[in-house]
């Protein structure tokens, strides 16, 4: 279980202030939904945590470790995995191979370390067994040996989750997971996310426009506008907060 602490994070693009001293904490094992109108700064924060961007000020700590000192290509080895809005899967590879690819992100602490310890053949077998277990957890075991191409978007979203979990993260970043899904796929994905959170003890940061999903699965919600936090609390508290209502509907 892991705590994420975002403290005074600011980010500028030329003259635009995308994040303005943003601070919030996600407790161990919590799901935090980050909401806000278009341009609020959600993606920018997400990209700062996943180390694609370097903020101009502030601190982002996972269990006390400063993530801003970690380069993007090493972030998985420090316990952070993410999914992408447009899926980053390999269509010609099987479900199993796509999931195994996620474990390579662990670097020396994962597959590479295992090769050095127990040799390539055993490391490969262990990796396959672990990836297969993840596919079982996500209800995808029957598809293990099929290529990822030509599957429904909802199924591929679950595969992307399996691949992210193969990196054995403590913090999982979900980038608009509901995008492009049908109502029933959103419901299914929501219960899957909660289940993997419980099973793997994950802390989750979720950026999402689908309000029903965010309010349904989050333990806490952080609402942003113009790069600042405008509300924070339980889904019920944030939904009825006047600043949030006005940010979405415009001032009365
Ligand atoms: P959306 O919900 O539309 O994805 P968002 O809340 O994710 O919006 P951001 O994409 O983080 O918002 O954008 C915050 C602000 O920073 C906006 O004003 C945006 O135009 C600006 N911005 C974001 N990325 C860049 C960039 N790479 N270069 C310049 N400006 C940027």
Automatic annotation (TrEMBL):
Coiled coil: none annotated. PROSITE patterns: ABC_TRANSPORTER_2 (PS50893). SMART domains: AAA. GO terms for cellular component: plasma membrane. Keywords: ATP-binding, Nucleotide-binding, Transport. Signal peptide: none annotated. Residues 4-251 form the ABC transporter domain. InterPro entries: AAA+_ATPase, ABC_AA/LPS_Transport, ABC_transporter-like_ATP-bd, BCA_ABC_TP_C, P-loop_NTPase. Gene3D superfamilies: P-loop containing nucleotide triphosphate hydrolases. One of its GO terms (molecular function) is ATP binding. This is ABC transporter ATP-binding protein. It comes from Nocardioides acrostichi.
């Amino acid at each position: 279980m892991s705590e994420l602490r975002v403290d005074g994070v600011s980010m500028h693009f030329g003259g635009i202030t995308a994040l303005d001293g943003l601070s919030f904490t996600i407790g161990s094992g919590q799901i935090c939904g980050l909401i806000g109108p278009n341009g609020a700064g959600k993606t920018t924060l997400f990209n700062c945590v996943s180390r694609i961007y370097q903020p101009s000020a502030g601190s982002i700590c996972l269990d006390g470790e400063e993530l801003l000192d970690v380069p993007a290509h090493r972030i998985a080895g420090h316990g952070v995995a993410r999914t992408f809005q447009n899926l980053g899967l390999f269509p010609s590879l099987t479900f199993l191979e796509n999931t195994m690819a996620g474990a390579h992100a662990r670097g020396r602490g994962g597959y590479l370390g295992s090769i050095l310890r127990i040799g390539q053949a055993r490391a490969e077998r262990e990796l396959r067994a672990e990836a297969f277990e993840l596919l079982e957890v996500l209800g995808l075991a029957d598809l293990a040996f099929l290529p990822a191409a030509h599957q429904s978007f909802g199924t591929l979203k679950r595969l992307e989750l399996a691949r992210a979990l193969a990196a054995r993260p403590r913090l999982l970043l979900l980038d608009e997971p509901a995008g492009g899904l049908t109502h029933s796929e959103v419901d299914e994905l929501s219960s899957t996310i909660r289940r993997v959170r419980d099973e793997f003890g994950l802390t989750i940061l979720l950026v999402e426009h689908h309000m029903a999903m965010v309010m349904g699965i989050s333990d806490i919600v952080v609402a942003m506008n113009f790069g600042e936090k405008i509300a924070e609390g339980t889904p019920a508290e944030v939904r009825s907060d006047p600043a949030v209502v006005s940010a979405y509907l415009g001032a009365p």
